[in-house]
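Summary for the funding panel

The consortium committed to producing paired sequence-structure records for every protein in the target list. Below we show the first two records in order, beginning with the earlier of the two.
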Amino acid sequence: MLEFPRWKYALVIIIVLFSALYALPNLFPQDLAVQVSANRGGVVDEALKERIQGVLEKDSLPFKSMELDGDTLLVRTDTPDHQLTAADELRDALGNDYVVAVNLASTVPGWLSALGGKPMLLGLDLRGGVHFKMEVDQRAALDKRENGFADDIRSLLRDKSIKYTGVTRNAEGIHVQLATEDAVPAAIAQITSNLPQLEIAESGDNSLTAHIRPAELRAITDAALEQNIGTLRNRINELGVAEPIIQREGSSRIVVQLPGVQDTAQAKKILGSTATLEYRSVVDGDAYAALSSGNVPPDARIYYRKETDGSGNRIPVLLSKKIIVSGDQLVNATSGVDTQNGQPEVNVTLNNVGAQRMLEFTTDNVGRGMAVVFIERTPETKEVDGKEVRTTKVTEEVISVANIQGVFGKRFRTTGLESSKYASDLALLLRAGSLAAPVDIVEQRVIGPTLGQENIDAGKMAISIGFLAVCVLMIIYYRLFGVISVIALFSNLLLLTAALSVVGATLTMPGIAGIVLTLGMAIDGNVLICERIREELRNGNTPVSSIKAGYERAWTVILDSNVTKLIAAIALFSFGSGPVRGFAVVLFFGVLTSMFTSVTMSRAMATWIYGGRKKLTSVSV
């Protein structure tokens, strides 16, 4: 008799049930929505919900529902036109206190979401959106780093009491002019020891020329590219875009894909904006009085904090016009907790130039206030006399004010912050406020949601036709074993959908092609098994031994062929990018699920059908 362990039956049933559960969210279509999240100073609460509802009703904009979801508010709409119109109106009404973005809202039931059920993510070609290709100005990154090395050399020579008359940059590198001939060996020794990234050469007349080593040049350009990718990712997170794709292409380009975004002007404004930070001292005096009278001290300016007072107005503060340290001198910033009082804090690290300036300032100003000013410059295009004129909008905001509790320089901490989340946000702004090097958008494409829906419909049609054609052919040619193969094939599609949903893979058109290919490859295993069973029957073996031999002997061939497919999928994922990697992910999981369904699941069904018969005389194959 045919035998199949009970624990394997249980395993098959459990896997099928779990696959059905986690593939189920893909049956719930997503709603078009407008997402509103708090920017610096904004609060998402019931009052905002009522305000947004008033704006939409005033403009007679229909919406399906409105709900608070953590730190965001979702307004569900019924058509793409209503979604885009509502986003534009809310963006104008709410101003800079909130980030308004178009998005998709899940309709998966709460109980299923609580179990971790989520639908597959859709790529740009299926969901629509914008595609940018950005070129990083590597020369600007190198210039910035050379300026930093020049500052480091000045600080080093000054600290080691080595006399020099100037440290300047020219076309040949960094030129160091020393005061005496005796200072040349000492300067070479100190620079070589403390700045190993530089190559030093004597250029005569008590001078040196420093060049950045080739390996360091590559590291600088790579670091600038990676830092820009991180900064762009942080900015895109503020846009509220779900499943953005930000990846490197070649040695100097970045590809940015924003699914669901149709407003290219808003996206370019966020991506192209530059930001920096400035540390300034707090000037003694009444900011409200200076604001009302207009008598501002000559050495001060009025800035505004992100917080508001009781009447809803921004709180003014008097700050010195002199900058202590700017964001260019900041090396790193991390959030943490003060071990003494358990309060949130931000730990900041400066470079040598910034450290010296901070040390000099704090030595003379213990007990006084110091503020962090966030400055953002956003490109805008305005129409003047029928012509487009490019301008820059400058936003300045005080994001932190704290008292100087002691003398510090290279490393210090900012305490007295209102919450751990505020400390984390402040550290993020400090780390990624500005791009490491300028970027230019060299290519942009817009894919409409209608085209994306057409791609989805075409993909569904391709999968349906391919699946039905295979099913009909298998049932006609292999009869009952063809039915078993079809059930295994459907289970394979179920398992693959569940796996892609659980891992959060992004489905694209190449991914749909991968699913169709997986269905074709998955049936290969069942064809091999059926043909092996037929061969055994033709050789005169009994039906029971033919079924056993068919599965056992076909397994080796199936394993070998699928291992090579797995190697190909891993290679595509490792060396490919974008659509190629999406195809590779589907191929990888498709091979794994097809091996399980073609062999284990089909054998379980065959044993359940034929194993209970005491005397098996024939096999429908």
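The next record, for a separate protein in the list, is shown here:
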Amino acid sequence: MASDRNTPEFALERAATRFVRVLLDDSGSRVFDYGVPEGVAVSPGCRVRVPVRTRTLLGTVLEVTDYSEARGIRMVSEVLRSDAGMNPALLKLAAWMADYYCCPLELAMRAVLPQVIRKSEMTHQQRQRVRLVQLPEEAALAALEKKAPLQAAALRALAQAGEPVSVAELARTTDASHAVVRALEKKGLVRVEMERVERDPFRNEEFVSSPALALNAEQGVVFARVCASLEPLAEGAPAPKPFLLHGVTGSGKTEIYLQAIQLVLQQGRSAIMLVPEISLTPQTVERFKSRFAAQQQEVAVLHSHLSEGERHDQWHQIRSGRAKIVIGARSAVFAPLEKLGLIVVDEEHEPSYKQEESPRYHGRDIAVLRASMERCAVLLGSATPSLESFHNVKQGKYELLQIRQRVDDKKMPFIRIMDMRNESKKQGGIISSRLMTAIEQRLAKREQTILFLNRRGFSTSLLCEKCGHVCSCPNCSVSLTFHKAANRIVCHICGHLALAPSKCPECKDPGIRHQGTGTERVEEVVQKLFSKAVVKRLDADVLQRKEAFRETLSAFRTGKIDILVGTQMIAKGLHFPNVTLVGIINADMGLHIPDFRAGERTFQLLTQVAGRAGRGDVEGEVFVQSYTPFSPSIQFARHHDFEGFWDQEISFRQEWDYPPFTHMVLISVRSPHQARGELSAQTLAKSIADGAPAGLFIGEPAPAPLEKSHGEFRFQLVLRTRTVQRLSRHLRGVLDKLKFPEDVRVSVDVDAYQLL
């Protein structure tokens, strides 16, 4: 709406010589034009406050221009400090994500610029420090001790310290509260000052400098090739081709990452190191901080387990240029580094790089794209590369680097397959007799064992033998998992929990029994079998405290734990030379789910878990327990044969036109009303078919494998195409036109990794 010509605001509009296009926070993709007051510096990516009707809102500048066709343009109220915005490269990246992943631009911007940074009122933490102004005479101090002993104690402590002391520290040592300090301040006996303090998630850690390790012949060849790609590029030259480093477990890939980043730092540039899971971040940080401690290089960390304050301060440490190395999970790919020289994506095959909420980006793919945009090198590493990445090698898009041997000529672990169909049902069929013997031998030699089962809890369900009732989640179409220590039954989908019943809730019969096995049950059985051994469990249920993961791994590293039982968080990236035995309790767990990637994921997981064994001087041994021992995924993993698995699996994918030969788009429709959700899915399918891009395959709308979740019925529509961006734009047009009932939610997952 245009301003009245007699108002001062209209005069400001006429005076504006520059205009900005602003994307408002929480606005979807709506963009508005504003004028810029004379003399105010503004650039794409910066954060601004702008008037919207009677309010003032925050937004991000997308473009600066000297012309606007909009009428009634109002002026930018305030340009926020320059270190709270985005650089042009990240702004461009967000726009690409919105287009490719079929999501509102504002959601893509929110992924790139975290909410904790978008809050302009967020500032550095201020810490109060106390300085002693004067100490009263002894007589006055004695009188103070009678009337206000805490004040007197605080004064004496300050005098003994001889230097400024924080209020929090003073409270710990003397029980002097903030009220005590304020009383002393009023009397003129102390002066309270504010000091800026950065929150450091590793403030209590000490890192001892560690030198670079000598590279063997294979590592040297790979490192030389990576170094060549780090040379400065000529003006206008394209970014170097992405590298796929296929190195067997224990082949020293991390040392190559470290030395390549060292070279990047010497060139005055910066680097990002991505790890697939938060659980791997502490050990990676330890290695990096130890390596670069002597050079006083700042290593910043970004992941979702940081507090808001820690994340805020780490982000600004990067934005200011003080940190040149960033380590973190998938969101660290958006770290606001300047002069980016290298992005490393470790364990590039991991599904956890895929974001599960909109924007549903893949961290590995965004890393490759950002490297292309910023003309820097990108190194993808894995012992079990994804079929998509290896296909890119075959297509000439990526360059393959290989390390086929472990460092110091250590042997790959010997893998034995245990056919559980032939095992007795003793101990519930959990531990085979040969695995029991192998554990006993390791305990006798004071060697360590890892037992892997990718399912937490004690049992997977509670079943009544009389009436057949299964305790199920009221919100999801899954059975409830029994957790014995808490005596609770829990839904691992929505979090619903209830007290475990002592008798059947349906027929009241006491013969309700446990079915299935989780890590809690494995821990209990193993502790009974080996009563003198120290057995610990590592899964999401025991990681309630922030430091629990690091403490458990530290105890395992120092030999205080004999047997470690855990889920996939112990399956990759861990290096414990004294682990000589790995037992995989149920190799079939993920093999038979309705997902075309089930075989690939099983092969990858088995290979990665097996790789934890034999990383020291003693050859490792792995026992794989399975009820389908002749599955190709298990047999190829047994022989460490990635190429063999690739040849078979890629033929299957090509025959059925699955990724990587096409892009798969999964559209989910959710509603608390089953019929309404189903009708909406059918309507959507018909609308997509009208005017769809050529070559689009549209599956029939159908209930999802997990039909109900969080109280909503779920329906799926699977699309496959070779031109994904054309499809994304078509979908956006369809979704903008269709009006669904208020309780129907529709989501689009481009390059879907989770089909359940």
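Regarding this second record: DSSP finds 22 helices and 31 strands in the chain. Confidence is low (pLDDT under 50) at residues 1-14, 120-125.
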